[in-house]
Amino acid sequence: MKAGWKLEALGEVCEIAPKKALAKKTLTDEQLVSFVPMDHLGILESHFTAQEERSLSSVYKGYTYFCDDDVIIAKITPCFENGKMGVVSGMTNGVGFGSSEFVPIRGTGKTIPKYLFYYLLRNDFRENGARVMTGAVGHKRVPKEYLENLPIPLPPLEEQKRIMSILDEAFEGLDRARENAEANLKSARELFEERRRTLVSNKTTGDPLTLKDVCINFEYGTSSKSSATGCTPVLRMGNLQDGEIDWTNLVYSNDAGEREKYMLHKGDVLFNRTNSQAHVGKTSIFDGKMPAIFAGYLIRVTPKKEKLTNEFLNHYLNSDIAREYGRSVMGKSVNQANISGSRLKTYPINLPELERQHEITLELDALKVKVQEMQALYRTKLQDISDLRQSLLQKAFAGELT
After folding, report:
1. How far is CA 199 from the centre of its chain?
2. What is the DSSP string of 217-283?
3. Is the pLDDT of residue 206 over 70?
Protein backbone atom coordinates (compact mmCIF):
# COMPACT_ATOMS: atom_id res chain seq x y z
CA MET A 1 0.00 0.00 0.00
CA LYS A 2 1.20 3.51 -0.77
CA ALA A 3 2.95 5.48 1.94
CA GLY A 4 0.60 7.84 3.76
CA TRP A 5 -2.45 5.67 3.20
CA LYS A 6 -4.33 3.95 5.99
CA LEU A 7 -5.99 0.53 5.94
CA GLU A 8 -9.19 0.52 7.95
CA ALA A 9 -12.26 -1.66 8.33
CA LEU A 10 -15.22 -0.40 6.31
CA GLY A 11 -17.40 -0.46 9.42
CA GLU A 12 -14.99 1.97 11.13
CA VAL A 13 -15.17 4.60 8.40
CA CYS A 14 -18.73 4.07 7.13
CA GLU A 15 -22.13 3.38 8.60
CA ILE A 16 -23.54 0.09 7.32
CA ALA A 17 -27.36 0.10 6.93
CA PRO A 18 -28.23 3.40 8.66
CA LYS A 19 -31.39 3.39 10.77
CA LYS A 20 -34.53 4.40 8.87
CA ALA A 21 -35.66 6.50 11.84
CA LEU A 22 -33.30 9.14 10.47
CA ALA A 23 -35.77 9.80 7.64
CA LYS A 24 -38.49 10.83 10.09
CA LYS A 25 -36.24 13.45 11.61
CA THR A 26 -36.44 15.54 8.44
CA LEU A 27 -39.64 14.38 6.71
CA THR A 28 -43.30 13.99 7.61
CA ASP A 29 -45.23 10.80 6.82
CA GLU A 30 -47.02 12.54 3.93
CA GLN A 31 -43.92 13.83 2.18
CA LEU A 32 -42.66 12.02 -0.90
CA VAL A 33 -39.49 9.98 -1.20
CA SER A 34 -38.02 8.07 -4.13
CA PHE A 35 -38.73 4.36 -4.43
CA VAL A 36 -36.15 2.03 -6.02
CA PRO A 37 -36.95 -1.65 -6.65
CA MET A 38 -34.14 -4.11 -7.31
CA ASP A 39 -34.57 -4.10 -11.10
CA HIS A 40 -33.93 -0.34 -11.27
CA LEU A 41 -30.42 -0.77 -9.93
CA GLY A 42 -27.71 -1.22 -12.57
CA ILE A 43 -25.06 -3.91 -12.83
CA LEU A 44 -21.55 -2.62 -12.10
CA GLU A 45 -22.80 0.92 -12.74
CA SER A 46 -22.77 3.87 -10.36
CA HIS A 47 -25.70 5.79 -11.82
CA PHE A 48 -29.34 4.83 -11.56
CA THR A 49 -32.55 6.85 -11.79
CA ALA A 50 -35.46 6.55 -9.39
CA GLN A 51 -38.61 6.34 -11.51
CA GLU A 52 -41.22 6.31 -8.77
CA GLU A 53 -42.25 8.38 -5.75
CA ARG A 54 -44.18 7.27 -2.70
CA SER A 55 -45.13 8.79 0.63
CA LEU A 56 -42.76 8.12 3.50
CA SER A 57 -45.47 6.33 5.47
CA SER A 58 -46.17 3.89 2.63
CA VAL A 59 -42.57 2.65 2.42
CA TYR A 60 -41.36 3.03 5.98
CA LYS A 61 -42.17 -0.55 6.91
CA GLY A 62 -40.72 -3.39 4.88
CA TYR A 63 -38.27 -1.39 2.74
CA THR A 64 -34.66 -0.21 3.04
CA TYR A 65 -33.86 3.43 3.75
CA PHE A 66 -31.01 5.36 2.07
CA CYS A 67 -30.24 8.93 1.05
CA ASP A 68 -28.17 10.92 -1.42
CA ASP A 69 -24.45 10.07 -1.38
CA ASP A 70 -24.99 6.60 0.05
CA VAL A 71 -23.64 3.63 -1.86
CA ILE A 72 -26.14 0.76 -2.06
CA ILE A 73 -25.43 -2.85 -2.95
CA ALA A 74 -27.63 -5.91 -3.28
CA LYS A 75 -26.90 -8.48 -0.58
CA ILE A 76 -28.83 -11.49 -1.94
CA THR A 77 -27.69 -14.06 -4.49
CA PRO A 78 -27.39 -13.77 -7.50
CA CYS A 79 -27.77 -9.98 -7.45
CA PHE A 80 -24.72 -9.55 -5.21
CA GLU A 81 -22.47 -11.69 -7.41
CA ASN A 82 -23.78 -9.91 -10.54
CA GLY A 83 -22.74 -6.54 -9.14
CA LYS A 84 -26.08 -4.81 -8.49
CA MET A 85 -24.95 -1.55 -6.92
CA GLY A 86 -25.03 2.20 -7.33
CA VAL A 87 -24.31 5.64 -5.88
CA VAL A 88 -27.46 7.33 -4.61
CA SER A 89 -28.22 10.79 -5.99
CA GLY A 90 -31.21 12.88 -6.99
CA MET A 91 -33.66 11.26 -4.57
CA THR A 92 -36.89 13.14 -3.89
CA ASN A 93 -36.29 15.21 -0.76
CA GLY A 94 -32.86 13.57 -0.68
CA VAL A 95 -34.32 10.29 0.58
CA GLY A 96 -35.01 6.93 -1.02
CA PHE A 97 -36.47 3.58 -0.01
CA GLY A 98 -36.12 0.34 -1.90
CA SER A 99 -35.73 -3.40 -1.83
CA SER A 100 -35.24 -5.05 1.56
CA GLU A 101 -32.30 -6.81 -0.12
CA PHE A 102 -30.32 -3.56 -0.40
CA VAL A 103 -27.52 -2.63 1.99
CA PRO A 104 -26.78 1.11 2.13
CA ILE A 105 -23.26 2.21 3.06
CA ARG A 106 -22.90 5.77 4.30
CA GLY A 107 -19.62 7.61 4.59
CA THR A 108 -18.70 9.46 7.79
CA GLY A 109 -16.35 11.98 6.23
CA LYS A 110 -13.36 9.76 5.50
CA THR A 111 -14.50 8.50 2.09
CA ILE A 112 -15.91 9.98 -1.09
CA PRO A 113 -18.99 8.03 -2.31
CA LYS A 114 -17.61 7.39 -5.81
CA TYR A 115 -14.27 6.26 -4.34
CA LEU A 116 -16.14 3.74 -2.19
CA PHE A 117 -18.19 2.61 -5.18
CA TYR A 118 -15.05 1.93 -7.21
CA TYR A 119 -13.58 -0.06 -4.34
CA LEU A 120 -16.67 -2.25 -4.19
CA LEU A 121 -16.57 -2.63 -7.98
CA ARG A 122 -13.60 -4.98 -7.70
CA ASN A 123 -14.17 -8.64 -8.53
CA ASP A 124 -12.39 -9.62 -5.32
CA PHE A 125 -15.07 -7.93 -3.24
CA ARG A 126 -17.89 -9.95 -4.81
CA GLU A 127 -15.98 -13.22 -5.09
CA ASN A 128 -14.90 -13.16 -1.44
CA GLY A 129 -18.37 -12.09 -0.35
CA ALA A 130 -19.96 -14.97 -2.25
CA ARG A 131 -17.80 -17.43 -0.29
CA VAL A 132 -19.16 -16.29 3.07
CA MET A 133 -22.83 -16.01 2.15
CA THR A 134 -25.29 -17.60 4.56
CA GLY A 135 -28.85 -18.86 4.23
CA ALA A 136 -30.82 -21.38 2.23
CA VAL A 137 -29.97 -22.19 -1.37
CA GLY A 138 -31.39 -19.49 -3.64
CA HIS A 139 -31.76 -17.07 -0.70
CA LYS A 140 -28.16 -16.69 0.44
CA ARG A 141 -27.08 -13.27 1.61
CA VAL A 142 -23.83 -11.51 2.37
CA PRO A 143 -23.57 -11.10 6.15
CA LYS A 144 -23.30 -7.59 7.55
CA GLU A 145 -20.09 -8.63 9.31
CA TYR A 146 -18.36 -9.19 5.97
CA LEU A 147 -18.99 -5.57 5.02
CA GLU A 148 -18.10 -4.20 8.44
CA ASN A 149 -14.76 -6.04 8.50
CA LEU A 150 -13.86 -5.35 4.87
CA PRO A 151 -10.44 -3.65 4.82
CA ILE A 152 -10.35 -0.52 2.67
CA PRO A 153 -7.25 1.56 1.82
CA LEU A 154 -7.84 5.21 2.64
CA PRO A 155 -5.69 7.90 1.06
CA PRO A 156 -6.36 11.56 1.94
CA LEU A 157 -9.62 12.92 0.49
CA GLU A 158 -7.83 14.98 -2.17
CA GLU A 159 -6.06 11.85 -3.40
CA GLN A 160 -9.38 9.97 -3.39
CA LYS A 161 -10.73 12.71 -5.68
CA ARG A 162 -7.77 12.32 -8.05
CA ILE A 163 -8.24 8.54 -8.17
CA MET A 164 -11.93 8.99 -8.81
CA SER A 165 -11.24 11.46 -11.62
CA ILE A 166 -8.72 9.15 -13.31
CA LEU A 167 -11.06 6.15 -13.09
CA ASP A 168 -14.03 8.21 -14.33
CA GLU A 169 -12.14 9.23 -17.44
CA ALA A 170 -10.70 5.77 -18.09
CA PHE A 171 -14.02 3.99 -17.55
CA GLU A 172 -15.84 6.44 -19.80
CA GLY A 173 -13.57 5.37 -22.66
CA LEU A 174 -13.90 1.69 -21.75
CA ASP A 175 -17.68 2.01 -21.61
CA ARG A 176 -17.71 3.41 -25.15
CA ALA A 177 -15.53 0.53 -26.31
CA ARG A 178 -17.81 -1.96 -24.55
CA GLU A 179 -20.93 -0.44 -26.13
CA ASN A 180 -19.33 -0.65 -29.59
CA ALA A 181 -18.34 -4.30 -29.07
CA GLU A 182 -21.82 -5.17 -27.77
CA ALA A 183 -23.42 -3.41 -30.75
CA ASN A 184 -21.17 -5.31 -33.17
CA LEU A 185 -21.96 -8.57 -31.39
CA LYS A 186 -25.67 -7.89 -31.77
CA SER A 187 -25.28 -6.85 -35.42
CA ALA A 188 -23.43 -10.06 -36.25
CA ARG A 189 -26.29 -12.13 -34.88
CA GLU A 190 -28.91 -9.98 -36.62
CA LEU A 191 -27.06 -10.40 -39.93
CA PHE A 192 -27.41 -14.16 -39.70
CA GLU A 193 -31.05 -14.06 -38.52
CA GLU A 194 -32.09 -11.71 -41.31
CA ARG A 195 -30.49 -13.91 -43.96
CA ARG A 196 -32.06 -17.03 -42.50
CA ARG A 197 -35.46 -15.36 -42.41
CA THR A 198 -35.14 -14.44 -46.08
CA LEU A 199 -34.07 -17.91 -47.18
CA VAL A 200 -36.64 -19.95 -45.26
CA SER A 201 -39.50 -17.64 -46.19
CA ASN A 202 -39.14 -17.95 -49.97
CA LYS A 203 -42.61 -18.48 -51.37
CA THR A 204 -43.42 -21.63 -53.30
CA THR A 205 -46.30 -22.40 -55.60
CA GLY A 206 -49.27 -24.52 -54.56
CA ASP A 207 -51.28 -24.69 -51.35
CA PRO A 208 -49.63 -23.61 -48.09
CA LEU A 209 -48.11 -26.51 -46.20
CA THR A 210 -47.86 -27.21 -42.48
CA LEU A 211 -45.42 -29.42 -40.60
CA LYS A 212 -48.17 -32.03 -40.39
CA ASP A 213 -48.03 -32.30 -44.20
CA VAL A 214 -44.27 -32.80 -44.40
CA CYS A 215 -43.40 -34.69 -41.19
CA ILE A 216 -44.34 -38.20 -40.09
CA ASN A 217 -43.54 -38.13 -36.41
CA PHE A 218 -43.90 -35.76 -33.43
CA GLU A 219 -42.64 -37.83 -30.51
CA TYR A 220 -42.30 -36.79 -26.87
CA GLY A 221 -39.23 -37.96 -24.97
CA THR A 222 -38.88 -39.98 -21.81
CA SER A 223 -40.56 -38.90 -18.58
CA SER A 224 -38.47 -41.24 -16.44
CA LYS A 225 -36.15 -39.83 -13.80
CA SER A 226 -32.55 -39.30 -14.77
CA SER A 227 -29.48 -39.16 -12.54
CA ALA A 228 -26.04 -37.60 -12.39
CA THR A 229 -24.41 -40.88 -13.43
CA GLY A 230 -25.41 -43.70 -15.73
CA CYS A 231 -24.98 -45.33 -19.10
CA THR A 232 -26.92 -43.19 -21.53
CA PRO A 233 -27.01 -39.36 -21.72
CA VAL A 234 -30.51 -37.82 -21.61
CA LEU A 235 -30.60 -34.60 -23.64
CA ARG A 236 -32.66 -31.79 -22.10
CA MET A 237 -33.59 -28.22 -22.94
CA GLY A 238 -30.21 -26.90 -21.78
CA ASN A 239 -28.44 -29.14 -24.27
CA LEU A 240 -30.15 -27.40 -27.20
CA GLN A 241 -27.99 -24.41 -28.02
CA ASP A 242 -28.06 -22.31 -31.19
CA GLY A 243 -29.33 -25.16 -33.35
CA GLU A 244 -26.69 -27.60 -32.12
CA ILE A 245 -26.15 -30.02 -29.23
CA ASP A 246 -24.23 -28.84 -26.19
CA TRP A 247 -22.74 -31.93 -24.55
CA THR A 248 -22.05 -30.32 -21.16
CA ASN A 249 -24.20 -30.62 -18.03
CA LEU A 250 -25.50 -34.06 -18.94
CA VAL A 251 -27.78 -36.33 -16.94
CA TYR A 252 -28.09 -40.06 -17.54
CA SER A 253 -30.43 -43.05 -17.68
CA ASN A 254 -29.73 -46.71 -16.92
CA ASP A 255 -33.08 -47.98 -18.23
CA ALA A 256 -32.54 -50.36 -21.15
CA GLY A 257 -36.19 -50.04 -22.22
CA GLU A 258 -35.95 -46.25 -22.34
CA ARG A 259 -32.73 -46.52 -24.32
CA GLU A 260 -34.40 -48.68 -26.96
CA LYS A 261 -37.54 -46.54 -27.22
CA TYR A 262 -35.99 -43.06 -27.20
CA MET A 263 -32.57 -43.63 -28.80
CA LEU A 264 -31.65 -40.72 -31.04
CA HIS A 265 -30.27 -41.06 -34.55
CA LYS A 266 -27.90 -38.65 -36.24
CA GLY A 267 -29.90 -35.86 -37.87
CA ASP A 268 -32.91 -36.09 -35.52
CA VAL A 269 -34.49 -32.69 -34.90
CA LEU A 270 -35.33 -31.89 -31.26
CA PHE A 271 -37.84 -29.15 -30.36
CA ASN A 272 -38.19 -27.76 -26.83
CA ARG A 273 -41.91 -27.68 -26.05
CA THR A 274 -42.17 -26.15 -22.56
CA ASN A 275 -40.45 -23.77 -20.16
CA SER A 276 -40.29 -19.98 -20.14
CA GLN A 277 -41.55 -18.20 -23.26
CA ALA A 278 -37.97 -17.30 -24.23
CA HIS A 279 -36.93 -20.97 -24.28
CA VAL A 280 -39.96 -22.63 -25.84
CA GLY A 281 -39.23 -23.40 -29.48
CA LYS A 282 -35.46 -23.86 -29.12
CA THR A 283 -34.51 -26.48 -31.68
CA SER A 284 -31.32 -28.42 -32.38
CA ILE A 285 -30.22 -31.20 -34.69
CA PHE A 286 -28.66 -34.30 -33.13
CA ASP A 287 -25.06 -34.71 -34.26
CA GLY A 288 -24.61 -38.34 -33.23
CA LYS A 289 -21.48 -37.56 -31.23
CA MET A 290 -22.46 -40.27 -28.74
CA PRO A 291 -25.52 -42.45 -28.08
CA ALA A 292 -28.25 -40.50 -26.29
CA ILE A 293 -31.98 -40.38 -25.60
CA PHE A 294 -34.15 -37.29 -25.08
CA ALA A 295 -36.25 -35.95 -22.20
CA GLY A 296 -40.02 -35.51 -22.13
CA TYR A 297 -39.87 -31.72 -22.50
CA LEU A 298 -38.51 -32.26 -26.01
CA ILE A 299 -40.27 -33.38 -29.18
CA ARG A 300 -38.48 -35.38 -31.86
CA VAL A 301 -39.72 -34.22 -35.26
CA THR A 302 -39.16 -36.60 -38.19
CA PRO A 303 -39.59 -35.11 -41.68
CA LYS A 304 -40.72 -37.02 -44.75
CA LYS A 305 -37.39 -37.49 -46.49
CA GLU A 306 -38.85 -37.04 -49.96
CA LYS A 307 -40.15 -33.57 -49.00
CA LEU A 308 -38.05 -32.03 -46.26
CA THR A 309 -34.45 -32.31 -45.04
CA ASN A 310 -33.65 -32.43 -41.33
CA GLU A 311 -31.16 -29.57 -41.71
CA PHE A 312 -33.65 -27.26 -43.42
CA LEU A 313 -36.25 -28.11 -40.76
CA ASN A 314 -33.77 -27.21 -38.03
CA HIS A 315 -33.04 -23.84 -39.62
CA TYR A 316 -36.74 -23.17 -40.16
CA LEU A 317 -37.75 -23.93 -36.55
CA ASN A 318 -34.96 -21.66 -35.26
CA SER A 319 -35.92 -18.80 -37.57
CA ASP A 320 -37.75 -15.67 -36.48
CA ILE A 321 -40.67 -16.75 -38.67
CA ALA A 322 -41.20 -19.98 -36.75
CA ARG A 323 -40.61 -18.27 -33.38
CA GLU A 324 -43.23 -15.63 -34.20
CA TYR A 325 -45.77 -18.23 -35.19
CA GLY A 326 -44.94 -20.25 -32.06
CA ARG A 327 -45.77 -17.26 -29.86
CA SER A 328 -49.17 -16.98 -31.54
CA VAL A 329 -50.15 -20.58 -30.69
CA MET A 330 -48.30 -20.91 -27.39
CA GLY A 331 -50.26 -22.17 -24.43
CA LYS A 332 -49.56 -20.94 -20.91
CA SER A 333 -49.89 -22.45 -17.46
CA VAL A 334 -48.51 -21.24 -14.12
CA ASN A 335 -44.99 -19.91 -14.83
CA GLN A 336 -44.79 -22.10 -17.94
CA ALA A 337 -45.32 -21.63 -21.65
CA ASN A 338 -45.82 -24.61 -23.92
CA ILE A 339 -46.27 -25.70 -27.51
CA SER A 340 -47.75 -29.17 -27.75
CA GLY A 341 -47.11 -31.62 -30.55
CA SER A 342 -50.56 -30.87 -31.99
CA ARG A 343 -49.75 -27.14 -32.10
CA LEU A 344 -46.35 -27.85 -33.60
CA LYS A 345 -48.05 -29.70 -36.45
CA THR A 346 -49.86 -26.49 -37.46
CA TYR A 347 -46.66 -24.53 -38.16
CA PRO A 348 -46.84 -23.19 -41.75
CA ILE A 349 -43.75 -23.84 -43.85
CA ASN A 350 -42.72 -22.64 -47.31
CA LEU A 351 -41.00 -25.59 -48.88
CA PRO A 352 -38.44 -25.27 -51.70
CA GLU A 353 -37.37 -28.30 -53.69
CA LEU A 354 -34.95 -30.64 -51.93
CA GLU A 355 -31.99 -29.43 -53.99
CA ARG A 356 -32.74 -25.84 -53.01
CA GLN A 357 -33.10 -26.88 -49.36
CA HIS A 358 -29.58 -28.31 -49.52
CA GLU A 359 -28.26 -25.09 -51.08
CA ILE A 360 -29.92 -22.97 -48.40
CA THR A 361 -28.50 -25.18 -45.66
CA LEU A 362 -24.99 -24.91 -47.06
CA GLU A 363 -25.23 -21.13 -47.30
CA LEU A 364 -26.61 -20.72 -43.78
CA ASP A 365 -24.11 -23.13 -42.26
CA ALA A 366 -21.21 -21.26 -43.88
CA LEU A 367 -22.60 -17.90 -42.79
CA LYS A 368 -23.12 -19.22 -39.27
CA VAL A 369 -19.44 -20.19 -39.02
CA LYS A 370 -18.38 -16.69 -40.07
CA VAL A 371 -20.80 -15.07 -37.63
CA GLN A 372 -19.56 -17.30 -34.81
CA GLU A 373 -15.99 -16.22 -35.58
CA MET A 374 -17.06 -12.58 -35.44
CA GLN A 375 -18.92 -13.17 -32.19
CA ALA A 376 -15.89 -14.87 -30.65
CA LEU A 377 -13.79 -11.84 -31.58
CA TYR A 378 -16.21 -9.38 -29.99
CA ARG A 379 -16.61 -11.54 -26.87
CA THR A 380 -12.83 -11.56 -26.52
CA LYS A 381 -12.82 -7.77 -26.80
CA LEU A 382 -15.51 -7.54 -24.11
CA GLN A 383 -13.50 -9.79 -21.81
CA ASP A 384 -10.37 -7.72 -22.47
CA ILE A 385 -12.29 -4.56 -21.55
CA SER A 386 -13.55 -6.19 -18.35
CA ASP A 387 -10.03 -7.35 -17.47
CA LEU A 388 -8.64 -3.88 -18.09
CA ARG A 389 -11.25 -2.36 -15.78
CA GLN A 390 -10.22 -4.71 -13.00
CA SER A 391 -6.54 -4.05 -13.65
CA LEU A 392 -7.12 -0.31 -13.31
CA LEU A 393 -9.05 -0.84 -10.08
CA GLN A 394 -6.25 -2.97 -8.69
CA LYS A 395 -3.67 -0.30 -9.52
CA ALA A 396 -5.88 2.45 -8.14
CA PHE A 397 -6.21 0.91 -4.69
CA ALA A 398 -2.56 -0.06 -4.60
CA GLY A 399 -1.70 3.62 -5.02
CA GLU A 400 -0.25 3.24 -8.52
CA LEU A 401 -2.47 5.77 -10.36
CA THR A 402 -1.54 9.00 -8.55
Report:
1. 30
2. EEEE-B-S--BSS-SEEEE-GGGEETTEE--SS-EEE--HHHHHHH---TT-EEEE-EESTTTTT-E
3. no
